[in-house]
TrEMBL record:
Pfam families: Amidohydro_2
Family stated for the protein in its record: Belongs to the metallo-dependent hydrolases superfamily.
Domain Amidohydrolase-related: 3-276
Domain of life where this protein originates: Bacteria
Signal peptide: none
Name of the protein in question: Amidohydrolase
InterPro entries: Amidohydro-rel, Metal_Hydrolase, Metallo-dep_Lactonases
Length: 286
């Protein structure tokens, strides 16, 4: 089963996507399963993980309702406020759905780069561990040292770095991104999504060769069992089509990686990390 571990659905009239304005161009419209379906078929992708795009529990509930009627949806990474007094109660309620996989605080948008190590946030993340739920880390390079400190304080947390932590690919900058990401990769329970790279490159002039050094470095740090493909569709449309994103990654993985390694990147690793069982996967050919 090939899995896209990171994509989004949204409906503008829901009203909680503060970042989605007319200035967002091609993104300023509704995107749903019927829009993504032909792209999934073209790349042989049988299942996806929908990731939150609004900092509201209501949006998480909206995505979970989509799972019931959309066979390609394997699960949802939602949003719950880690500083809310009812954090655990909300987790318990959302966890009633078998499609609720974990949460993603929108850390990249917060003024406090050290938000993830606030005492109340750390306690909430320990609660996440107790409920065997995952954490998506939406961070920029400057926030990676705080992510490493958080991981040291919350043993056993399953975490995945989204979009390889958004290095400045357009400018070709690799440090301190590389060194700080290595500190995060040292934790064996942490994975990394090979996603969101085309929008960190030059939107109009990017080439696969611009992405490859970053992809290869992530692959070196995490190895073939802890990286996963994510399209970041429809956000990727700002710079590339779904096919272009998938093809660029397929062509840029280390040449010494086996077919089994490559298959893991495009499916098995996401299933293992998110605890996606057979009951959540559609019955289609891999």
């Amino acid at each position: 089963m090939r899995i896209d571990a990171h994509q989004h659905y949204w409906r503008l009239d829901r009203g909680d996507y503060g970042w989605l304005t007319p200035d967002a161009g091609i993104l300023y419209r509704d995107y749903g399963p019927s829009d993504l379906a032909p792209h999934l078929r073209s790349r042989g992708i049988g299942a996806t993980v929908a990731v939150q795009a609004a900092p509201t529990v209501a949006e998480t509930e909206y995505l979970l309702t989509l799972c019931a009627g959309e066979p390609t949806l394997a699960g949802v990474v939602g949003w719950v406020d880690p500083e809310a007094d009812d954090f655990e109660a909300t987790l318990v309620r959302l966890k009633r759905s078998p499609y609720f996989l974990g949460i993603r605080p929108m850390l990249q948008d917060l003024e406090d780069d050290a938000y993830i190590v606030r005492p109340k946030v750390l306690e909430s993340l320990r609660t996440l561990v107790r409920h065997d739920l995952a954490l998506d880390l939406l961070v920029r390079p400057r926030q990676l040292p705080h992510a490493a400190a958080m991981l040291a304080a919350v043993p056993g947390l399953r975490a995945v770095v989204d979009h390889i932590a958004k290095p400045d690919i357009a400018a070709g900058i690799t440090e301190p991104w590389r060194s700080d990401l290595a500190a995060v990769a040292a934790y064996p329970n942490v994975y990394c999504k090979l996603s969101g790279m085309v929008t960190e490159a030059d939107h109009r002039a990017w080439r696969r060769e611009h992405l490859e050094p970053y992809i290869r470095e992530v692959c070196r740090l995490f190895g073939p069992q802890r990286v996963m493909f994510g399209s970041d569709w429809p956000v990727c449309l700002l710079a590339a089509s779904y096919d272009e994103v998938a093809a660029a990654l397929e062509a840029s993985l280390p040449p010494e990686w086996t077919e089994a390694d490559r298959a893991a990147v495009f499916g098995a690793n996401a299933a293992a990390f998110y605890r996606i069982g057979n009951s959540k996967l559609p019955e289609v050919a891999s």
